[in-house]
Fold this sequence. Notes:
By secondary structure, this protein is α+β, with helices and mostly antiparallel strands. The protein contains 2 helices and 4 strands. It has helices spanning 53-62, 64-73, and strands spanning 13-18, 24-29, 33-40, 45-52. Strands 1-2 form a two-stranded antiparallel sheet. The longest helix is centred in the last third of the chain and has 10 residues, at 53-62. It starts with 12 loop residues before the first strand and ends in a 6-residue tail after the last helix.
Amino acid sequence: MSKVCDVTGKRAKSGNNVSKANNKTKRKFFPNLHKKRFYIPEQDTWITLKVSSTALRTINKNGINAVLRKARANGNTLV
């Protein structure tokens, strides 16, 4: 299961754990993803998307249809 947002395309970033002695070891920063179902009234269907918290806020603000339209225009084939 890939940890990538279906709408925004956010994915894991890499960085370092830094100890008190300033030792550095590699780690990953994962996006805050949620599996959500959205209803599309024009198509009378439900779709399941893996979205980040930022994408949820965008969907609440602009609506699912506008967000899907913009994601398709940006070349996102998962949506």
